[in-house]
Amino acid sequence: MNNFGFIKVAASSPKLKVANPFYNAEEIKNIILEADKNFAKVIVFPELSVTGYTCADLFLQKKLINDSYIALKNILDETKHTDILCAVGMPILINHILLNCAVLFKSGKILAVVPKMYIPNYREFYEKRWFTSGFEVSHIEEIDLFDEKVPFGNVIIEDKNLGLRIGVEICEDVWAPIPPSSFLCVNGANIILNLSASNEVVAKSDYRRELIKGQSARCICGYIYSSASVYESTTDLVFSGDLLICENGSLLKSSERFKRESQTIYSYIDVDRLNSERQVNKTFIDSLNVSNVKYQTVNTIFNKLSIDGFDRYISKTPFIPSNKQEIDIRCNEIFNIQVAGLAKRFEHTGLKKAVIGISGGLDSTLALLVTYKTFKELNIPPENIIAITMPGFGTTDRTYTNAVNLIKSLKCTLMEINIKDACLQHFKDIGHDKDIHDLTYENTQARERTQILMDIANKIGGIVVGTGDLSELALGWCTYNGDHMSMYAVNASIPKTLIKFLVDWYAEKTDDKEAKNILKDILDTPISPELLPPDKEGNIKQKTEDTVGPYELHDFFIYYAIRYNMPPEKVLFLAEHAFSDKYDKEYIKKWQNVFYRRFFTQQFKRSCMPDGPKVGSVCFSPRGDLRMPSDADSFIWLS
Questions:
Q1: What is the pLDDT of residues 43-56, one digit of tens each?
Q2: What's this model's pTM, rounded to 2 decimal places?
Q3: What secondary structure does DSSP assign to 170-201, as a single string?
Q4: 20 to 30 A Cα–Cα from 636, which one of 30, 177, 469, 511?
Q5: Active site residue ranges
């Protein structure tokens, strides 16, 4: 079965008894068996999970060390039939040197042993009393364990078929100025396991979470973090069983801390996506030049790969802020980026007037709001915004009224120029029958409007502010040298779903009740270029999404197919998962094919698009983000 590059992973914090390796081994074994039943392929346990972290001077007891080995052997024997890579923590004695180690094993076989490098010895920590840093034994590359030679030290576990490379660090390692995971990742590790015993003090968990998220972002990796449970608590220290699974700066799953039972969390990590991000990010690749650490590679193969019960959250609207607490911050930031870009263009040219076509639709509404805020920032009166409504053959009373009322509510200068006569004259000039409502009929109107905007801008000494958005550019849903063109396109890297969200956000924030009502009605209006005549009742007949498909699907395709370079079958799988309550697979696939077909055939429009601010992670500017041949063949994406 195609796993689409996903691997299911787990982090567990078991109940334990300090200094009782046999009790602890039984708990660990049971959790491994359960995780294997749940199709997890990697599971991480806390630091020194076989013995307990807080054994203190008991680590000097030969009995504890010997019995921890026996307990480990019990775990190996009872998990031979599983297909899951496990990382448990325990003390390992090498030549009278005691090391705090992670033991990695799979299907009853030890694959590697990795020592803790940074041994904390400050405040409440005094580990150097018992343990030696892995740096002191860096010359050792293998050890004897259960009469077998086992790779030791700087090790990466690899499954070549999955493109999976796993590295390990232990607790304090990630708190170091240059964590071992940084070197592991530039040497190819794409998932980091951290076995930890991090005690709790006020606000430490917030810092720890940001630390792990940040390291996963910096290293473009998956990061599985497991910390000791409340049963580790003793003397002056309290532990909480903090579990985290992160991917490239995003927290995929976390535990409820201070639980008094064993706890395991699961999530799918997208290994292909991580590898793709690294391939694009040349700074990441260049970092290999500063790494002089050499690693052993230990090969393994995962069998029985499955994504049955795929439960990773996939948002229908990946461009829209998902954190409700951050919505104001994010939306303000988007506006500020748009405003800053447009303001610089006005300051650079020395011009004081903007020309913008207002249709009563979403795109021109956002562009007008951005221009209005820009003029406010520059202390230019709003009447210097020449907002032009240009009724044509498809303009309805609803959109016309909303356009006019919005312009008036913002106190901009309203101009109305009816384009019907000019278009009819043009039809005569080129010999086109006005009753044939084809592309010529539609595009004539779009180009006439753009000509008016450009000529008025020349006449008054102003800039034509473009209104087209990212989704339209992706699909080529714009008239070449019509609405495709402007002097500065403020919406060029904002997808349609986000534009709708931003307009709604603005409506909720404004104190102007009249403006709010207008914006809400614009939001409720069907998306349409209004280039074909309305129906008999005067309502919009030409609806964009009837022709090109739902914008929410296309924006989803943009995010995964273009932002993350995912193949069509994986994009389809994710879309099917995200929209399972709304669209079936065949419906999604139909519009996915439309997306790829239009994306490839319409590149020529993007190759000469005007300047506009890069706002999010996707931009189609040929000057920065997308260098694509205009005549590339879409066959393999459609087949």
A1: 999 999 999 999 99
A2: 0.92
A3: EGGGGGSSS-HHHHHHHTT--EEEEEE-----
A4: 469
A5: 47, 116, 171
